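step 3/5: co-fold with glycine
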Amino acid sequence: MDILVVGAGAREHSLAWQFIHSGHTVWIVPENAGLPLHSVDININDIEQIISFAQTKKIDLVVVGSEEPLLLGIVDVMKKAGLCVFGPNKEAAQIEGSKAWAKAFCHRHDIKTAPFIVCTTMKEARDAIDYFDCSVVIKADGVARGKGVFVCDNKDDALHQAFLMLEKKQFGQASMRIVIEKRIFGKELSALMIVDGERYQMLPLVEDYKTIEEQDNGKNTGGMGAVSTPQWVNQSMSTAIETTILSRTIEGLVKDGIHYQGIIYAGLMLDKDNQPWLLEYNCRFGDPECQTMMVRCQDDLAQWLQTAAQGALCQKMIRWSDEMAVSIVLASKGYPDDYESGYVISGFEQIDSACVFHAGTKRQGDCIVTAGGRVMTITALGKTTEEAKKHAYDAVEMIDFNDVYYRNDIATR
Ligand code: GLY
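step 4/5: write tokens
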């Protein structure tokens, strides 16, 4: 197949890597410094030019990795242009595009989620914070690149955060409306599935390390590391997730008349009784969850994505390696806030015991330099989590650039 991957991060690099390993001809937009021979220099928001490129190259399958183009309706436009594209249309992508919409969806379809109140004014926010006794999570309604979720455990924090979002427009249009919900305690887990409109195929469960600092302190990020599958997950947890969250999600979408083809990513919290609660939905692969899964995939994943995009997902199961996978995100110091870029990255070309997936990097002369907050993801396999973790951290230590930052506690929960 000729495949076009749309998206600029390490997630898209890992998808392209998996497709190349399965023998496909792969292109990626925009440029990814890790895939110089496959990269096409088109702006990710220039949908017309991406379509024109896909038509010229007679692309068989477009895989859209990131949420921004999905929320802008890239799939609708591409389908109209006659392309086969894996990803939800604009209406279906609301599952990620509006937290308030997703919470109401869960409520309608008996999907367990924390009690919540949608607020547009500080008066409403104050009342909601009091109602939930100050232990709340505050979320921007729209997308904010993984940065729009704040866990608060006292009233001052919660009021300050609501003020920043509603009054100071911290995330612009995305935080004009916020969701305030009761905080649920437990263990977080990411459950993803490929959906063809009616059927689904569950992907391996992954544990994401979301905060910037170790021991789950500090601000939320897009994810600083991941493990697939964490040792503490057992079959009964997996069954509960599938029956009470994933299959109800598909049934709900079908009942609501929403045609969903693409990835559904359910961000979950498992409570003390190991019952799953839905924290949020995303309409695409997770990052770094995707990188962590791709190294375990032992099948031609692109064929599954193509059949899902055609509404014909088969019942056969995708084959995954029994090995454990660990990913570590290398970031620029300061991320998820401000950071410096343009520093030469060394040491990564010698790594052979792990995969190096590029995100915020670019080619400058003969060098690769930093060009973003999330610079690269290092992903390694091992027979045990310990072994995968060792391979991943050994590789991380070979890489050097000014202001490199990563968590040292990935795969230690
Ligand atoms: N790792 C979290 C996300 O992709 O949203």
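step 5/5: annotate
The chain is about 30% helix and 25% strand.
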